[in-house]
Structure formats: C-alpha cells, structure tokens
Amino acid sequence: MTPALETHGLGRRYGSKWALRDCTLEIPRGSVTALVGPNGAGKTTLLRLAVGLARPSAGTVRVLGLEPRADAAELLPRIGFVAQEHPLFGSFTVAEMLRTGSKLNPTWDDEAARRRIAELDLPLDQKVKSLSGGQRAQVALTLALAKRPELLLLDEPVASLDPLARLEFLQSVLEVVSDGELTVVLSSHIVADLERVCDHLVILSVGRTQLAGSIEEILASHRLLTGPRDEAADVARTHEVLRESHVERQTTLLVRGGAHVYDSRWTVHELGLEEIVLAYLGQGSGRRRETVAS
Amino acid sequence: MTWLSWREQRTETLLALGLLALLAALLVPVGLHLETLYRQDNVAACLTQATEACHQAMGNFGNGAGALRSVLTWLTLLPGLLGAALAAPIILDLESGASVFAWTQGVTRTRWLATRLGVALLTSLAAAGALTLLVTWYRRPLDSAFGRFDNGVFDLEGTVPLAYAAFALGLGLAVGVVWRRTALSLIVGFLAYVGSRVFVDSWLRERYEAPLGATWGIRQPEPALRGAWILSSGPSDKAGHPFTGGFQVIESCARGVGGGIKSVDPACLARHGAGFNHAIYQPASRFWLFQGIETALFGGLAIVLIGFAAWWLLSRVE
Questions:
Q1: Which residues of A touch B14 (CB under 8 A)?
Q2: Which residue ranges make up each domain of chain A?
Q3: B interface mutation test: which of A46, A84, A89 has the most B CBs within 10 A?
Q4: Residue range A41-76, pLDDT digits in tens
Q5: % of chain B exceeding 90 in pLDDT
Q6: Chain B contact present for A73, CB below 8 A
Q7: Which helix or strand (DSSP H or E) is residue B288 part of?
Q8: Does A51 touch chain B (CB under 8 A)?
Q9: Can you tell me the distance from the alpha carbon of B174 to that of B190, in angstroms, rounded to the nearest whole number?
Q10: Given CB atoms, is B97 within the 8 Å cutoff of chain A?
Q11: In percent, how much of chain B has pLDDT > 70?
Q12: Across residues A111-120, what is the average pLDDT?
C-alpha cells in the first residue's frame, strides 16, 4: 500500500528564501504523526504542498499515491484539512457551514456532522465569527471529518486556543483516531501537546527534515550518557552525538544509537520526547555545545 | 456550489435589488406622468412640425421630466457600483483566508472559480439589464422627443450598461486578487472605472466614426437633426467654416437698432463670413453602431480582466 504522504527532495521557495527544502519523508497509513518544529520551520508549507494549495519549487509530493495539484479532483474528496486559525465563512451560521460542506463534498456524512455538533453543544444558528476560538476549531474539525477522509491534516490546530480548549480539541482528535484507519498528521511547535496523541514524529527545522520515525523507536534510540570528560571522544565514535555539555571533569552527551557502553564510569539515562526534540531543534543551527566553566 | 455562490453574495445581491426597487419607486410614477403629458400635448405630432405652438409644447414636455432628468445622469455610475460590489465577496474570501477552506473541500479550485465568477457575472449583468430596462421604459417619451444619443442617456440604454457592469466587476476582481484588500481594491477598481468612463464619454466615443456636418441659413428652418448627437454648433459661413468675426460685424450689418435678427441684412453677413449655422453631429441612425462598438470595447476589457483574475487565482494564489 502506498504511504499516506510521501515526499522526495521536496522544496518550496518564496522569492529567494526557501520555506521548505530538501524534505524527504514517508508517513505510513494508519499512523498519527506529529509534525514538529519551531515557527518558520516549514510545517505549514509542507501541509499546504500536501493539499495542493501550493506548488512545489523542487522535488515531489504524493498523497495517497496521488499528485495533489494534478490529481486534485480525485484527491481532494479523500483528504480533510484544517488550516491554521481555522478559516471558515465568517458570516455563515454553523448550520450554513454544514450545508456548505454537504454541497462541496461528494462523500459528506451529514448525520455524523450533525451528531458531532450536537454532542459538542455547538449552536447551529450562531454565526461562525461570533463563536469562540475553541468552538470554531471544533466546527472546522467536524467539517473535515464529515468528508470521511482517509487522511486528515491539521495545521497548528491548537496554537490559537486557550489551555482548556486545547485539551478538549486534542481529546477530540484522540477519539477520532481510536476508531478507524484514519491517518492523521498534525503540526505544532509544542511537543507536549502531541505526545499523548501521536505515534509518529517528524521534526522539521530550518526548512529541512531532522528526524522522522515512530515515537517508540525514537525513544528507544536516544539516550543521555554521563561520564568522564576525557573519555567523551571514545563514546562519540560509536554514537551520533546530538548535544554535549561539560561540567568540570564530567561530560553529558545526548546520543542517538543503541551501541552498548561497556565502561562502567558512564551512566545511561532514558530521555523524554521533549528533550530529544529540543536537541534536534538546537541542531538546526549547528550542533550545540554547552560548556559550563566552574 | 451554486447555492454557496448565492449565499456568499447574498448581501450584495439584496443591496442591488434594494437599489433597483428604490429606483423603480422613483421612476415609475414620473414615467407614467411623462407618458400622459406626451399624449396630452400631442408631442408626437410636433416632432415633424416647427410651429410656435409646437415649440411651446416641446418645452413644456421637457420641463415635465422635472428634476429627475439631471439626477439620472448620475445613474451611469450604478453599473460600476454593481460590478464592484459583486467582486467584493470573492476578494473577501481571499482576505479572510476562507478561500483556503473552500479550496480544500471536495471540489477543485477551477470548478469553485468557474461557479463563483459565473454567478457574480450573471448577477451583475442581470442587475445592469434591469436598470437599463427601467430607464429605457421611463425615458420612452423623452427618447422619441429628444433622442437618446447624448452623453448621460446613451450610457443608460441599449447594451452598454451590461458591458460597464462586467467591466467594473473585472476591474474589482483584477485589482482584488493581486492586492487582497477588499475595501481598498474596490475603491481603486471603482475609481479606475470612473476614469475609463470619463475618458470614453468625453473624448473617445465621438471618434468611433467621423462625424457629419450640416450648414443652413439663419432664416431657414433647422435641418432634421432629431435624435442626433450634436457635438458642436454655431454661426458659420456658407461653406460651414466657423464665423470668427465679432459682434461689431453683425452690428454693422444691421439696418437699424432694436429690430432684432430680422433687421440684419443676410447678404452683408454672407460677405463677412456669417449668416449660416453649422453643426457637427453623429446622426441618430448610428446609435446602435456606437452601442455595438462601446459594448465590444468594455465587454472585451471585462473578458481580459476577468480572465486575468481567474489566471492569477489559479496559478499565483496559494
């Protein structure tokens, strides 16, 4: 089966500036993938290329095996997309937005959409622009889900929401994910938001892919090693060092790789996802070296 | 998709309907009054006669049209307003980002665009058409008495108002898709509409075809220029060259003082290069030719502008 999303050397340039560059990744079907990176890392650009809003300047992107721009008529009904800030027709009521969805989508599930709106207690006759941010996000998600998509793409879905609405929204995504083979990609610059929901991770920074894989594997392959400073070079030969810091005669290394460290002077710590992500994001601007002189 | 297009431009459509209703409320009573006046004063019979009584009747009838006649000149801006207003919802979607929602639903951007533009264009044409019918019905008696070739009448009858509306829609769209600021784009688009219209009305239109000239003696009755668009007229010599002498020439040709025009010696005037009237005009028979030329001009520009907007939206806007 073709991957849900597959890019090869994908790049998009605006003027002389690359918003996304040399991005190669593969997101398997059925996965829930977090697309992580700081603001301006190219997350939005990648998603916009995937739904055919933008055209690639370099490389290729295939979604469900199709080319987003060329095969738009076939692809668009099969993907759900919620853009940043959840744009909708502001002067429409919620009911009119549902009617819009039913008119624009051949696979529209009206019953499911209405049920979801009722469950969330959203007012059908209220205008979209007078809804709260959280309510609007939920309407946007409802519209995307009612298409019965095979792939759901959410661009910074919770960035504009307050903490409570953020929690509720992610809870909704969790519920959606739990019943079905839906593939979900959601971008964020806050890792903590995504860890509960996702099983895959893609780290983008300065327009490039820094890391891509299943969260389980990523957690297993990254460790924090602490040991004598003068032995650091030996460890570095068998591991990919992402970050190192030194305190007096002691060195701390954040490494990738599962090779065993035989020297008993080294202690090994498991790492949280957030620490790993931060290590990669720091790497984007050259490997970080932290030396604390005492 | 059609439902969505209507829903998106509902405010603008209602606004256009409201304006047309208001206009109908103004024009229908006056139109009925004019018709009565036209029949009462037997204006039709006077069109071919130049008696003193008829002169009076025509003047009386002209006054009957009332103040509305001068107000109506401003109506020529209305097709522009209608066109610009119907461009608004499309630009607003771009400005608010709602287009991103629209373009990621189950229909392609091309189909979305074709429907939106089609409905906006049809609405502009229908509104401009209704305006034209209303004005033409109201002016029927006036048209048969005074013609409909003059600036301010020509632009509200025939087919040109439809082309103006499409042109204004195209201008609003072309500026708007590039700029993506609804209010400013529409203001700039509308100003460009007014500018183009002023240029065509005051300079270009009279040049569609070389105008004709007519010369007649001052004591002779006016030639049949009924319904023509008189570009200029004034005293001249027999060959139609404009009279360049001053008042003293006429004075010197007068046999006595206080006798008016009848006391002036025509032979004397002729010797001094006067004694005739000359008019430069576009004959009434050219009305539909000029309508056709101007409709093609603005209609063609509208197609280019709307085509540009569509191309820009499909290939340059993300």
A1: none
A2: 5-206, 220-292
A3: A89
A4: 899 999 999 999 999 999 999 999 999 999 999 999
A5: 62
A6: yes
A7: helix B287-315
A8: yes
A9: 12
A10: yes
A11: 96
A12: 95
Question: Which tokens belong to B42?
Answer: 């037997």
- Tell me the CATH number for domain A5-206: 3.40.50.300
How far does the CA of residue A216 sit from the closest CA of chain B (Å)? 32
The region of weakest confidence among A69-73, B88-92, B220-224 is B220-224
A104 burial (CB, 10 Å; 0-12 / 13-18 / 19+) is buried
Q: What is the distance in angstroms between the Cα of B103 and the nearest Cα belonging to chain A?
A: 7
Q: How sure is the predictor about A196, in pLDDT bands with cuts at 50, 70 and 90?
A: confident
Considering only CB atoms, B98 lies closest to which of A54, A73, A89, namely A89
User: Average pLDDT for residues A179-187, to the nearest whole number?
Assistant: 88
B66 — phi, psi (to 5°)? 70, -165
- What confidence tens digit (pLDDT) does each residue in B22-45 have? 999 999 998 898 888 888 878 888
Residues of B with Cβ-Cβ distance to A81 under 8 angstroms: 104
A153: nearest CA partner in chain B: B104
Q: What is the token pair recorded at A66?
A: 């199709």
Q: Which residues of B touch A85 (CB under 8 A)?
A: 97
Kindly report the nearest CA distance between residue A106 and chain B, in angstroms: 7
- Residues B225-269 pLDDT 10s: 888 999 998 888 888 888 877 777 777 777 665 656 666 777 788
* CB-closest option in A87, A91, A143 to B97: A87
A80 Cα to chain B: minimum distance (Å): 8
Burial of residue A17 (CB within 10 Å: 0-12, 13-18, 19+) is exposed
The C-alpha torsion from A132 through A135 and A137 to A139, rounded to 10°, is: -130
Domain ranges of chain B: 2-209+286-315, 212-282
What ipTM was estimated for this complex?
0.90
B109 touches chain A (CB under 8 A): yes
